[in-house]
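Narrative of activities, Objective 1.

The group set out to show that a structural description can be obtained from nothing but a protein's sequence at a throughput compatible with the screening campaign. Below is one input-output pair from the validation batch, recorded exactly as produced.
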Amino acid sequence: MKGIVYHGPRDFRFESIDDPAIREPRDAIVRVERTAICGSDLHFYHGDPLPVSGFAMGHEFLGTIEDVGPEVRRFRRGDRVLVSCTLGCGDCASCRGGLWSGCSTTGAFGPLTNVFGTPLYPGGQAEGARVPFADTNLFPIPPGLDDERVLFLTDILPTGYMGADLAEVGPGDVVVVFGCGPVGTFAQRSAFLRGAACVVAVDLDAGRLAKAAKRGCVPHDPSRDDLVEAVKGLTGGRGADCAIEAVGSPALVRDALAVVRPGGRVGVVGAITAGDVGLPFLQTLTGKNLTLRSGIVNPQHYVPLLLPLVERGRLDPAEIITHRMPLARGVRGYEIFDAHEEDVLKVVLEP
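Output recorded for this entry:
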């Protein structure tokens, strides 16, 4: 089969790779029918060279089951399925406690090692993929829902909602969301779903800010005006109730803590891979009685909560799609997404 294959930073290639095969009795093989480029994929695109290459990228994908191992119970050949971006075994203490992203079996080599599109678990920017522990990591797609309406339940819609969850957004809250990319967009939507009275969308991209304004947010470019003062102006001098960091920047985590009121809550769902956040803890957190929470998404928890909202039209995740391409042009899709060309927000690929 063919896929988008990692060979190093800015060296992704569309080329042939080995077909996936059943290795363990709880595996399934999925024929990929839609996949997408995620902001987290850009960490590989920009980062230091990995010691391993030749694996398929991508952790947002869905498709049809082509084969299952003898111990798979919930699925069979021909089922349309979503695939969780993070893999849990379903049996360890973390999985049983509802923290599949912290699975001690699939994540035995450390944080983020149990995510698709990595050396240990080749990804879904390919014509097919092996899914370990299929009964835990696959979700049936209800009849009548097309691929684009459910594709982002594999990662970024649950991630955006988790940001609002971690920040404990509630009715009447003023919420600041850092980032108007795909995860930020869904964090904004989720904040409104949870009853926020006002959502301030923070970004430097004028096109993305305009889109945020259309979905009801107050847009803010921090290079033009002081964010803390702007939020104080919206809140009678108090500050925001909650903030969500959806970019993955240490500086923006600090900004999120600065913009919330005493007793406020901050949720961080951006993947921070570069250095320490560097907080003066007493002044920043303890002194303001703030709550700071972060984590890697658990689609196994959020898909059952969010799928009914998609089915009933409360959420339309396909709104973020700006580019559709064949998988063979996926490398060009990375270039467009990375450079913010063509007013891009989300690139979907079809094998």
